[in-house]
Design goal:
Layout (H helix, E strand, L loop, with lengths): L1 E2 L1 H7 L4 H8 L3 H8 L7 H11 L3 H4 E2 L9
Antiparallel strand pairs: 1-2
Helix pairs in contact: 2-3
Length: 70
């Protein structure tokens, strides 16, 4: 699943370890999510969305919306 996590993290100048600490996951988990190797659980996806003040859909793209992003 594609996502904007790396971009959002970079905009805030957070390291993967810092983001992991904020989400209560490991740096390795952040890296795996960013690179698309691992899809977060729903509770973690909600935590990520809340942290960035966005919806899950704004951060994660399951490829099923036809690319209709403004």
């Amino acid at each position: 699943m594609k996502n904007r996590l790396k971009v959002l993290r970079a905009e805030r100048d957070w390291s993967q370890a810092e983001l992991g600490a904020r989400l209560d996951v490991s740096r390795q988990a952040v890296n795996a999510i960013e690179t698309g190797k691992y899809d977060p659980s729903l509770p973690l996806a909600f935590r990520i969305a809340r942290l960035f003040g966005m919806t899950i859909e704004e951060i994660f793209d399951d490829g099923c919306d036809g690319g209709s992003h403004g």
